[in-house]
Each structure stands twice: as C-alpha cells, then as structure tokens.
C-alpha cells in the first residue's frame, strides 16, 4: 500500500526558508510570488493490510513533529 | 560522580563532553565514559549527557531519529526515575523530540548557522546543573547551530512554572532582540522539565571549561560543578566573579 504524506509547518510558525525562497523568486523576476511555505513530501510504502491507525502513528511519532508541524496522509 | 555521554552516529561533541567530565573535572572526583546508542545499558552512570553534533545527519529533523535510538529507552526510564540528563545542542533537540523536554527547536530565524559567543542568564526552578549558580548570573558560552530557535505552544505556562533556565541576554544581562541569536521565543536558550532533572540548552558548556581555550572562558564549567555539588549535597554558591 502506498501513501503520500505531506508535512507542513503549523500556521503561525515562522518559515525563514520559505521567506528566503519567496525573496529569491521576487528578485528573479517573479514579483507576483507573494508567499512560500516549505514542507516535506514523503512517499511511504507499507505492507498490505496495514491499518490506517499505524500510518497515523508513524506520522505522529516520527515523520512530523506535532509541536510545530501538521501532516496529511493521502492514499494513492 | 560518573557521567555517561551517549554517542549517536553523527554526534561530534561527545569527545569534548567526555574530556570535560573525565579530565577537566577529574579533580572534583568525576569520571566519564561514552555510551553507544545501540547499547541498552547506562552502566550505572549518575548523569546522562546527550551531546552536540549532527546525529543521523540531522535527516528529517535534527534529533528526530536519535530520539528513537535503542538506548533512548533506557534514557527515558532513567529520566522517569529522576535521573539527571544534560542535553546539549543536538542533545537538546533529541530531548525535545523524545519528549524528555517540552517544545521544539526550529531553523534559526536568520537562516544562518550561528557560530559565536552568547551570554546566558541563569534563572528558573532549581536544577542540578544550575542550583549552585546565583539566579540572574550571566554566563558566556559559544553556540554553533542552524536549528536553535526554541518554540513552545504555551510559553506563558513555561515561564510561570519556572521551566526556563537559560535566556539569551546582553553581556550586562539585559533581554534584547539583538542578544537573541536565533529568534527563540522569549530569548529562551535552555529549559528544564517539571521535575527539574532534565536540562537542555543550545549553547555548549563543555566548550567553556578551560581558560586555555582563549576567550572561551570557564563559565561552562560552572554547570558541571553545580551538578557535582548537587550530588554531594553541598550547599555551594559557585561562579563568583
């Protein structure tokens, strides 16, 4: 079974990397780029029959730091 | 007093911490040894140090994977029993990821790897590593990190409970944005847990234990001496300057 996991910074958490990317886009001629927030994209393959709860646990325990990050699991 | 310094793959400040405990502080009766991250054995140490470095290459998030290293099962149980844990830099990141301390360390607001001296004010509830240092004392130490911005969802509660033990200040002890090298909330440089037996900080006390190392000074040594005094039960007041 395959999942796409998206890990993103929580709203309100400063993202200096995203800011740097936005500034570079704007400087490079893409002034219309107003905001960039950087996250992580993880392709997860698990054994057939793995319950969804286990994938949730993987996210909560390791893939995301729930103090500052949110996660979303998309089955593929 | 025996210090055990956990070595993870990618730790690189373990030897400095070992040198501080085993050689520099030896006259105070201390011993030090390295604990390999895969061993399920803390070898009867009195203090566990989680050292600085780049455990697991900082992959995924700094400290995220070291938090699940085999020995962390014993370290967590040790902390639950009240054992003293000293979490330095990457160690602080590991401690937060492992739930030994609250909060998280994120990328520096400046986006720079900040490698310089900072000044810390000692405050908060007593801990083994600070109890012998007068509250409000300013110590000088170095930092070397890219992800040291401390974030906590409820800083007010943290403050109320006295869990902030080190704060970035100016050399004369004032709280200013300029004194904050990484954008940490409330200039927080280090915290402790509710019980006061686990202390984490981003600066490197083990790099400030001998005046031989130029302007590094000896302020970091005070934290180790405080733990030795706490273990001996001697009511000391150190760091008189």
Secondary-structure blueprint:
The complex is a heterodimer of chains A (76) and B (241).
Chain A: E1 2-9, H1 16-27, E2 39-45, H2 52-63, E3 69-75
Antiparallel strand pairs in A: 1-2, 1-3
Chain B: E1 2-7, H1 14-24, E2 31-36, E3 47-50, H2 72-80, E4 84-88, H3 90-97, E5 104-106, E6 114-122, E7 138-145, E8 149-151, H4 155-160, E9 164-169, E10 188-192, E11 198-201, H5 219-232
Parallel strand pairs in B: 1-2, 1-3, 3-4, 4-11
Antiparallel strand pairs in B: 5-8, 6-7, 6-9, 9-10, 10-11
Please tell me the overall pLDDT of chain B. Answer: 95
- Tell me the major beta sheet of chain B: 9 strands, mixed
Beta strand % of chain A: 25-35%
Measured on Cα atoms, how large is the radius of gyration of chain A?
16 Å
> What percent of the residues of chain A sit in helical stretches (DSSP H or I)?
25-40%
- The main sheet of chain B orders its strands as 2-1-3-4-11-10-9-6-7
Your description of this structure?
The complex is a heterodimer of chains A (76) and B (241). With 76 residues, chain A is α+β, with helices and mostly antiparallel strands. Chain A contains 2 helices and 3 strands; from the N terminus they run E-H-E-H-E. Chain A has a 3-stranded antiparallel β-sheet with strand order 2-1-3, covered by helices on one side. The longest helix of chain A has 12 residues. Chain A starts with a strand and ends with a strand. Chain B is an alpha/beta fold and 241 residues long. In chain B, 20% of the residues lie in helices and 24% in strands. Chain B has 5 helices and 11 strands, in the order E-H-E-E-H-E-H-E-E-E-E-H-E-E-E-H. The longest helix of chain B is centred in the C-terminal third of the chain and has 14 residues. Chain B starts with a strand and ends in a 9-residue tail after the last helix. At the A-B interface, helix 1 and helix 2 of A face loops of B.
